[in-house]
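Why should sequence recovery work at all? Because a backbone constrains its sequence more than one might expect. Tight turns favour small or flexible residues, buried strands favour hydrophobic ones, and helices have their own preferences. The token representation captures these environments compactly. In the example below, the structure is given first.
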């Protein structure tokens, strides 16, 4: 799908404020409400907009242990990757998982009430015989930056931004 400047303004606006009204969105991007709404629906149907969410502060809800895990599987057949990915997809404490190239197979972001709960989760994964060869645990001590807003203009430009 080819995106124009108005589509990009719509995307930028809604990712900064998912609760923006359709009227306010139309005003912000310089369209009348109906064409703006039609464009928004088109972006949703194309799968560019995948949902609307509230960004929560977990540490204000309860004590939380945030853990990053590098994980390598013993075997690298497609079926090994699929089995592992199916298993972790059903675990709510694993809030993100990235398949990566390089020295490890996956990086996971895990959030549990405490380190003991994290260790029980890992022990449970190991007990399930998912082919985990090794894993390295990194406890998050401070979140320095965690953006939910994509830098759309930077991603679509050929020039790297922020190096001034």
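From this structural description, the recovered sequence reads:
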């Amino acid at each position: 799908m080819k995106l124009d400047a108005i589509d990009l303004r719509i995307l930028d606006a809604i990712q900064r404020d998912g609760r923006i009204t359709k009227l306010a969105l139309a005003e912000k991007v310089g369209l009348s409400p109906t064409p703006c709404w039609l464009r928004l629906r088109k972006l949703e149907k194309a799968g560019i907009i995948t949902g609307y969410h509230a960004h929560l502060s977990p540490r204000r809800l309860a004590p939380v242990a945030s853990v990053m895990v590098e994980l390598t599987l013993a075997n690298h057949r497609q079926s090994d990757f699929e089995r592992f990915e199916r298993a972790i997809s059903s675990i709510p404490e694993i809030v993100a998982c990235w398949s990566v190239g390089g020295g490890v197979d996956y990086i996971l972001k895990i959030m549990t009430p405490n380190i003991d709960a994290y260790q029980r989760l890992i022990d449970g994964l190991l007990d399930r015989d998912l082919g985990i060869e090794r894993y390295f645990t990194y406890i998050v001590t401070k979140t320095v930056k965690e953006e939910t807003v994509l830098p759309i203009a930077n991603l679509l430009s050929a020039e790297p931004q922020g190096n001034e």
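A few observations help interpret the result. The mean pLDDT is 93.
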